[in-house]
Structures are given as C-alpha cells and as structure tokens.
Automatic annotation (TrEMBL):
InterPro entries: P-loop_NTPase (IPR027417), Sulfotransferase_dom (IPR000863). Keywords: Transferase. The keyword Transferase applies. GO terms for molecular function: sulfotransferase activity. Pfam families: Sulfotransfer_1. Belongs to the sulfotransferase 1 family. The keyword Ribosomal protein does not apply. This is Sulfotransferase.
Length: 305
C-alpha cells in the first residue's frame, strides 16, 4: 500500500472482513480508531449510509437543515457555495479517524454533524450510550451497484485497468463490496429503526427524490429542529431542496474543479443522480438474480426496494 498514492490506496487495497462486513484495509484502520476513541455527544447527528446511496446529497441537506438559523438562504453566501459537502460534514472513519488515530474534534461546534459508512454492529459504544441521533440512507441495490461500479472504476489506478460490470456484479451478489454485504448493512439499521424510531431515522434515496419536502420536514422533526409555520410560508423547505439539488450542487465550481485535500476530485461524487439508471446497464438476468437475492434477504423484514 505504501507505494500507492494514499488517497487511491483504498481502491487497490485488500478487503478485510471485520464484524461480518468487508472493508478496504485503510477504512478498517479508521473504524478501529473510531471505535476506540470517538466520544459521541447527546446533540450529535450521525449520517450513516451505504456507499453510493446519496451520501453527498444528504450531507448537504442535513448541514443546511441543522444550521439554517445561522445562514440566509441566499444563493451567494451559503457555505455550500464554496465548500464540498464532504468538507462540511466529514466522514469519521474515512477522514477524521483515518488522518489521526485520536483526532482533536474540539473545533466542531455543537450540534455536531458527522457521517460514516460503518455497519450498525461496528458503531462505537458511545453512540449507543449517548442520545445522539442516527440518520440512515440507503438506495435500491441495483442503482447502488451501478453507481459503485462507475465510482470505483474512476478511482482505480490507470495501471489496474477498469473492472467489468460482470465482475463487480458477482462480487456484490456474494456480499463483497465496500461495507458489504449490502443487505446486512441495510437490515442492521432497518431493524434498529423499527425498535428505536427516536434514535434511528431510516430513509431511502428513492423516497427522498420523490418527495423531498415531505422527508425534509420529517427529518427536521426527528432532529428536534422542526420548521416553524413562518418558515413553511417562506418556502424555506423548497429553498433547501433547490440549493442541495443535483443540478445545483454538481454545477458549483467547488464541486466541479475542487479536490479533496487528499487529491480526489469532488466531481467523482456527481454522476447522474437519477433513480433507475440500472435499466441502462444491467442485463435482465442480472436484474432477476439481484431481485431474487433481495427477496430472500429481506423476506419477513417488511423492507422492500
Ligand atoms: P449516480 O452514480 O447514480 O449518479 P454518494 O454520495 O453516497 O457517494 O452517492 C453518489 C450518488 O449520489 C451518485 O449517484 C451521485 O450522482 C448521486 N448524487 C450526488 N449528489 C446528488 C444530489 N444532490 N441529488 C441526487 N443525487 C445525487
């Protein structure tokens, strides 16, 4: 690994299975440090996602929602205009606890907002012990897989060549994908959201796309910062949805030409931003097989995609 540029290293690294889930070596280091050192606070919000389920989008939405009293929703002076959502809402294990084993988080003012891809079983103990809230986002596995395939190929080093969709599909179906098995990841949070709805808010990309204002309102209530009737009148909700829309975010200069401090282009987080792009890529055999696996895995859980 040490001979590879570190920011790309995870793509090329061996995956390790830890607590039932597959992780690139580097991310696993971050998870272990985070489990050991992260101290959740009661007012924290943690955005948890399966990779490629719309993390970037929900980072933007939650950041704007939680901080809305501090900013005017003018197109010009909002922090999203000049900062990537990944800078405003950093990943715990992929950023903060990867750069330092025990990072100093004192510059993050309460209410803090972090994100993670960690499976439920791997969350640091302090998250359970505190009153912090979890917002979980997932996406139709067919779109997740296609998005993941494009993303990974973009980040693979030139000399590695790209991975075929067939190969990525086989691995995904066998549960081998970043933070996979996908179904176990989703079920972990789904079951917890049923048991403990005040702690875990379960959201699907497709539902957010379909009715963003409805779900934004529910999210605000869940997080204890409901919209006032004044805000509803002022169409603040529509303003937030518009600010965080794919068209708006993907066309901002910072997201078009900006790079993470580690060198990755922010633009890799924006591709199509649509529901159902799998129809353009997966064969009918692939669709049948993935649907069958999902049916088996989600049987009896009440969860469908
Ligand atoms: P596609 O590859 O299907 O286009 P993540 O942020 O978890 O890495 O997920 C990336 C996926 O979310 C990509 O999906 C990306 O295009 C999409 N996305 C990014 N910003 C979005 C937005 N504002 N609204 C909807 N989808 C968005």
């Amino acid at each position: 690994l040490s001979s590879l540029p570190t920011e790309m290293g995870w793509v090329a690294s061996t995956f390790y299975k830890y607590q039932g889930f597959w992780h690139p070596c580097r991310h696993l280091q971050g998870i272990l440090s985070c489990q050991k050192h992260f101290e959740a606070q009661d007012k924290d919000t943690l955005l948890v996602t399966t990779p490629k389920s719309g993390t970037t989008w929900l980072k933007a939405l939650l950041f704007t929602l939680i901080n809305r009293t501090h900013f005017h929703h003018s197109a010009h002076n909002h922090p999203l205009q000049s900062n990537s959502p990944h800078v405003l809402v950093p990943f715990l294990e992929v950023k903060l606890f990867l750069e330092h084993e025990n990072p100093d988080l004192s510059s993050f003012k309460s209410p803090r907002l972090f994100s993670t891809h960690m499976p439920y079983v791997s969350l640091p103990k302090s998250i359970h012990d505190s009153k912090c809230k979890l917002v979980y986002l997932c996406r139709d596995p067919k779109d997740t897989l296609v998005s993941l395939w494009f993303f990974t190929n973009k980040l693979r080093l030139q000399e590695m060549g790209s991975r075929s969709l067939e190969e990525a599909f086989e691995l995904f179906c066998g549960g081998v994908s970043m933070y996979g098995p996908f179904w176990d990841h989703v079920l972990g949070y789904w079951e917890e959201s049923l048991k403990n709805p005040d702690k875990v808010f379960f959201l699907k990309y497709e539902d957010m796309k379909d009715e963003p204002v409805v779900h934004l309102r529910k999210l605000a209530e869940f997080l204890g910062c409901p919209f006032s009737s004044e805000e509803e009148k002022d169409e603040v909700l529509e303003g937030i949805v518009e600010l965080c829309s794919f068209d708006n975010l993907s066309n901002l200069k910072v997201n078009k030409v900006g790079k993470l401090p580690s060198g990755e282009d922010y633009s890799v987080f924006f591709r199509k931003g649509e529901v159902g792009d799998w129809k353009n890529h997966l064969t009918s055999e692939m669709v049948e097989r993935l649907d069958r696996i999902c049916k088996e895995k989600f049987e009896g859980s009440g969860l469908t995609f």
